[in-house]
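Hey Z.,

So I finally got round to the iron/sulfur cluster thing we talked about over coffee. Here's the setup:
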Amino acid sequence: MTKIKVGGIGVPPVEENLPPVVLRNYGKWDTHENERPGVIKHIAKSGEVCYIVRIAMPPSRVSVASMLDLCDLADSYSGGFFRITLRNSFEFVDVNPAKLDELIQKVEALGFPVGGTKNSLHNIIACPGWIHCNLPATDSPGIAKALGDALFDEFKNQRLPAWLKINIGGCANIEEALMADIGIIGVHRDIPIVLEDKIRICEQPTVIHSCPTGAIKPKGKESVTINAERCIHCGACTMHCEAILTGDPKLDGFAVSVGGKASNTGSGPDLGRIVIPYLPNNPPHWEEAVNAVTQIMNAWVKNARPDERIKEWIHRIGWDRFYKRAGIRVSIKDVDGFWFNNEFARSDLRFGW
Ligand code: SF4
Ligand code: SF4
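And the result:
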């Protein structure tokens, strides 16, 4: 009989995986300095320092071969210690400062750029999209790659007014995209289709119950009907019945949001608002996505004050000026802050402030 080690289940004690310098100064870190793009120097109250080198990672997936290469570098330059950040950046932890240049040269030779710190473009995050999900309306990793290529210099240099975070979600079920300075959100533009010849295989009550807006009603004893007026194209019903399909290659695309923020610095966290309700899917270079994002970013770079995130810049100048400066046409489908109207009245489109 297999013996189960007591305490061998679950997350191992955190101390087992911490670099010695982190363990020695656990809970006693004082501050950090940005040495140069991609290099952060953490300083403990004891005076000890810990250097971190941050690199960009591919959106949503990384090959075993790449991970083995990075692990070899971690063994050679950071005592085998590394961490993956919330934005999927890879960080070598506790690098010898005398070996920083050598490590940066070697990791960049593998194709991983060093950067994404302070006032730069931080690692773009994207959901896996078509790789493993049945809901996406767009190819999140593909757009992330196209944007990463187009904005490569902004990842490597700290010359933006403030941090720039771009999140990409393949469908409207993800709130993560609305929590970034610029978000891309996949949108289905039509209601799901019901395969009448197969729908009887599904459990009617489960399918009806899965709809968050009550758009699905029974149709006889074996089928269902979808009310287009109520359907928000979320695709939840397709997860409960394989006879309901969502997505149309000719209609699907994505929306663009701006002004989201997850951190509590400055004026605090906020949800972004949709400013471009639809752009078509256009792989492999995703020109529409790249143009929209660079257009918004350039307007912000040109007009923002130092350390002003996109949200704070828009709230200072007002949404009407944002649309003009970014060269975006106002659409009736834009989200204009209905839920937070009092809070955002000052910057509401209808005020023209
Ligand atoms: S955001 Fe949507 S498309 Fe992307 S993984 Fe989540 S459910 Fe799937
Ligand atoms: S896509 Fe979403 S809103 Fe539309 S019918 Fe299905 S579950 Fe309901």
